[in-house]
User: Fold these one by one.
Assistant:
Number 1:
Amino acid sequence: MAYSEKVIDHYNNPRNVGTLNKESKFVGTGLVGAPECGDVMRLQIEVGADNVITDAKFKTFGCGSAIASSSLATEWLKGKTIDEALTIDNMDIVEELALPPVKIHCSVLAEDAIKSAINDYRVKNGLEAIVLEKSHH
Amino acid sequence: MKQPIYLDNNATTPLDPRVLEAMLPYFTEKFGNAASRNHAFGWVAEEGVDYAREQVAKLIGCTEKEIIFTSGATEADNLGIKGVFEMYKEKGNHIITTVTEHKAVLDTCKHLEKQGARVTYLGVKEDGLIDLQELEAAMTPETILVSIMYGNNEIGVIQPVREIAAIAHRFGALFMTDATQAVGKIPVDVIADGIDLMAFTAHKMYGPKGVGALYVRRKNPRVKVTSQMDGGGHERGMRSGTLNVPGIVGLGKACELCRLEMESEAIRLSALRDRLESTLSQLEESYVNGNTQHRLPHVANISFKYVEGEGLMMAMSDLAVSSGSACTSASLEPSYVLKSLGLSDDLAHSSIRYGLGRFTTEEDIDQAIAITQKAVLHLRELSPLWEMFKEGIDLSKIEWAEH
Ligand SMILES: Cc1ncc(COP(=O)(O)O)c(C=O)c1O
Ligand code: FES
């Protein structure tokens, strides 16, 4: 299958690869997927004043589309408030990266990772976790 | 666009220009129907087919009358297995095969199960070879056929064919082998090996696609299969349909070239393969899959732990290889062959198959090594699993949020 130019670009020059201190109170970490399924995504956000995401990092074990989805997600997350971040839908990622139908679940994983990172941050800071609607896989 | 380096010769091989040259006249001036008995056009085509039949027979050590031309190995597998099941159903309904067969064998067996066959699917050991004692224990008086592949398409391991044949025969069963990956690569001799039926195909040995053959033994014992297509009764009634003369001529020429060049090629390719494999095995946490003693000279299958195969292949876009990973929404199942060796899913997802061939050069291998090393390191930089491994975290203890 041919990958779109945007997927290839994110794949070759992934943005925001790395690790934030997961012990920090300002950092939320989402780890989703499973090695057995061939995909594991770790996405981290650092939240500053006014609930604005000041930094985002990822590492992903998975196919090119999964790597590109998480790389794109970190780009989109920076500068958004947590509430804005929650509105990121996997179909936005599909559209931006022109993912084919068989790769939609890679974007679902990225959406799950965002939500899971936000929840980790919320729980750490005494807020209740947001109930995640099970996304369409 | 620069062509990637082709290292997927188990999927298909390029056509050898010498094969093409032999085929070309049969598309144009020698276009006749080999079954036309009353004019020169037919005779010329038939001569081409007869000569090809000799070339094929010589490669595998049989007589010309024992070759049935088909559209490829898939059809030959179907014809052999279904044909034996139908022909020998008076004697019994039990078939033995293995879990690492190609789908052309597995799905044919599944189909026959619906028609009343009992099929035993033997597992394999960690190295991909079957356990002969297990085979022996599975044999019954109702066993009519043992169908076990010669060389495996994913990991290249070679089954102990002679021993398998001896066991099958001791219990009065026929022995069939899917030798698609072995014929033309290593010496295959149907007499010495004790093979009763054998499927193979031209496009894995530098011949054209869409043509192959089933060897059916005519003596000690005389084996018969029921035809699977009705029609003009070609190929001694076992496979109807106007013969694909150019394809058959190509298969013949491909067999001849393999017969003449196999020995030196096997030495050259196994040296290249070994260099590829030993260099890449020096990467931390990489594992060679399958038995390394009994195997085809041109295949290496390596798992690079903590990186995912499909992602890895993307980083190696200058390399045409294949992966045991099948992480798509349609199927999250990685290669069933690798899993049957007892490989964990994540190692199966991390595997790459390199299939070398006649046109693979030393420079190709040097580049393949460099490209793979760079890609593995790049992806490990991106891999959360690699980071955890490096921190000494036991990944099996983590509760993964399955999606
Ligand atoms: C072991 C084995 N059997 C059968 C086949 C099918 O061959 P063909 O493409 O000629 O039908 C293949 C090739 O994919 C193979 O590797
Ligand atoms: S992560 Fe499974 S195919 Fe992309």
Number 2:
Amino acid sequence: MNRNAWRRTAAVARKEFLHILRDTRSLVLALALPLVLLLFFGYALSLDVDRIPTLVYDQDGSPQSRTLVERFRGSRFFDILGQVDGYGEIERRIDRGEVLLGVVIGDDYSSDLAQVRPAQVQLLLDGSDSNTASIALGYAESVVQLHGLELLAEARNLKAGRTRAAAVEPRLRVWYNESLESRNYIVPGLIAVILMIIASLLTSLTIAREWESGTMEQLLSTPVRPFELALGKLSAYFVLGLADTLIAIGAGTLIFGVPLRGSLLFLFATSCVFTFGALSWGILISAVTRSQLLASQVGMVTSFLPAFLLSGFVYAIENMPAVIQVVTHIVPARYFVAMLKGIFLKGVGPAVLWTELFFLAVYGVVVFAATTRKLRQKLA
Amino acid sequence: MKAVEVDNLTKRFGQFVAVDQVSLSVEQGEIFGFLGPNGAGKSTTIRILCGLLSPTSGRATVNGFDVAAQSEQVKQNIGYMSQKFSLYDDLAVEENIEFFGGIYGVPAAEREERKRYVMRMAGLEDKGGMPTRLLPGGWKQRLALGCAVLHRPPILFLDEPTSGVDPIARREFWDLIYQFSEAGQTVFVTTHYMEEAEYCHRLALMYRGKVIALGTPQELKRQAGLPSMEQVFVEMIEREEAGA
Ligand SMILES: Nc1ncnc2c1ncn2[C@@H]1O[C@H](COP(=O)(O)OP(=O)(O)O)[C@@H](O)[C@H]1O
Ligand SMILES: [Mg+2]
């Protein structure tokens, strides 16, 4: 880019930034929205997981194992439908959707505890609704772990009382269904959806507004090129988009306690690439519709719905009909959701996630190029 | 070289012919008026000349550059003020000027001086920080004009620059147009105020997409044998109707 091109791009970016600052209401909305959505969906989606229908298969039948079952019974999150004596019934009732969780206590549970060996509790989960399953798993894990701590504390007390009892340090391990390896967690997915909504909401008005107010005609008569116009506008909104990204990541880790196991830097870089594509999409819509009302509606439908329904955020992609599964491949949020989950929960980096990152980058460049092309067109 | 050269220019929107085989030329430094009722095709012609619309057929050059093939060069050479007020209402006066200075590529060294010039010209020296939306109509128009001449374009296209402005502000606006013309800039201006027609060096009367008369105000009045532009205008349109 030569000097004049830079100058023009910078002028557009600066002007667009001033628009953002002047429009206080939208600015506040843009910054508050991630938090509001995160709280709203975070709770709305987790509140409905309550009184999880649970079956218990207690092979041990010891006082120790009965105590553990009591802990489950005492939690408001579990509804113990009954005790069974075999895997078969748990499997059947999970298949029929009557039961979400099976708690299996092995016959060596109390003897393991007594001999200071790690005692194991098996949790069987219905993984078809991975979202609910992951929450149920979280609750079940915490019940088991709490009980483990309880036993540990008891053992320590005994030691302090010098009763010569051997130190009991049970390590309870959780087993779960293979299919749950790909379980979804809410918050990382939610961050993707929120960024997609905000980015296209923010930008979908920007060009339409210029068409409606007549300033677009003025701009087209000046030497400013479509590429410079799109890039200038994008840079201004990019700043806002990144602020939203930070707010969403911050709220996710601090308020919802999502562990960030991967690199923060890689997470941020990924978010930048995704935000670039999402912002470009909004600008493209704005350039095509030339109307603020239409742009905001199209923006909502084309960003929110696919990001919400087809990204694997709420509904697991592998459970969708084949045709829909194919469609999800063109939803950028799908790749971002996968990346967020990978970075947050598995702590993986570019070595594992490069295909997703590559797709997001290609998506951004293609949409940006389409926007530039669209802006090149004349008035009529 | 002529400032503007239009040769058999036609623009259709579907079946509708908005500009019908228009030919004309404008000299450097001339104030050229485009007179005609609403819907005559004045704005459409100007938009083609500014590279905003492509002509259906015919040819036009602005400062020697073809409007269809060389629109980038055309845009470097013109200042355009569209029919609709088109500055940013939410930006301050100065911010609008700075923005247009930036996209017209005014060199950094000149930018401050050009900004002061425009503010003086528009009579807004002490209102730089005022939101543009709060300016009265006449000031807005002059600010828009100022933004369109920041880069000293050789040719100015003004589309009904004085519509909806009171007569005194109109007069002041025309003083500015004269200043540009004296400085050698060409001004191509549309209007439907008859008194403004008299201010132009040369005029084209446009009606239903066609140029039905072309000449200096004096020539047009003498040819028609009528004392005022208003009467000439009505007479020409009646003749055109009878002929059609
Ligand atoms: N983009 C367009 N599509 C269809 N018709 C148009 C378009 N622009 C202008 N017109 C029509 O062309 C005619 C001339 O319009 P215009 O050039 O704006 O006239 P004027 O500026 O002389 O009032 C009008 O009838 C108008 O409705
Ligand atoms: Mg007009």
